[in-house]
Amino acid sequence: MRFIGSAVNRVPGALCRKFNHKASYCYKLPPSVSLQEGAMLEPLCVSLQAVTRAKVGVGHHVFVSGAGPIGLMTAMCAKAAGAATVTITDMVDAKLEKAKEIGADYTLKADMPDLLSALESCIGEKFDMSFECCGVPAALNSCIQATMPGGVVCVVANLPQSIPLDLQVAVRHEVDIIGVYRYCNLYPRALALVSSGKINLKPLISKTFQLEEAQAAFEHFASGEPIKVIIQPSAPEQLV
């Protein structure tokens, strides 16, 4: 498998004005979907894969650890799948505010005292599905402990190769731990969700930079508060 811009596969990225791509991997955007939204279909597919694998459905209560782009999109996909509530945690207040804006029912600081009790008090019980989207080992343990017996923990973020894990809690409560590594054949579904208005990606765009400002774009994103930074290869009037 080759993935554009991946350090693992050593395939050069697409920070350029023109890029030749196989037509079979291209999808035409309808007039209702902007190029900026189209650029975010790729991470949206990761979240859609997670929600699909975890089998989120109508009436489920969902916990998402991490309010970065993937965490917020996972919350969106869970809501679109029919989740009754979505609870999300993060360390950054601005990201929690964004989580409220896109429809999260409950937001909590990840470093608050007795987080597990606070999580359970949100809905009065443990969660049907929990999604680890921040890549912090302790957060994965929180997901396991916050999930009801027979529930599902989906690991979406990249974690260190070896981490301490409360595996016995998962075993004793028969919690299924599953993983997500990218996606397959989900672009049409993701595009349908955006074009129909069931998912609105526009609030996630924090700032747009021109290609010549790429270095500034990366530095802006590294500040920790932006959700999604767009690098635009050409002036708006040149985009077709």
TrEMBL record:
Cited InterPro entries: ADH-like_C, GroES-like_sf, NAD(P)-bd_dom_sf
- Domain Alcohol dehydrogenase-like C-terminal, which positions? 69-195
Gene3D superfamilies attached to this UniProt entry: Medium-chain alcohol dehydrogenases, catalytic domain (3.90.180.10), NAD(P)-binding Rossmann-like Domain (3.40.50.720)
Query: Which superkingdom heads the taxonomic lineage of this protein's source?
Result: Eukaryota
UniProt keyword list = Metal-binding, Oxidoreductase, Zinc
A Pfam family in this protein?
Answer: ADH_zinc_N
Q: Which cofactor does it need?
A: Zn(2+)
Q: What does the sequence similarity comment in the record state about its family? A: Belongs to the zinc-containing alcohol dehydrogenase family.
Supply the name of the protein.
Answer: Alcohol dehydrogenase-like C-terminal domain-containing protein
Record organism: Durusdinium trenchii
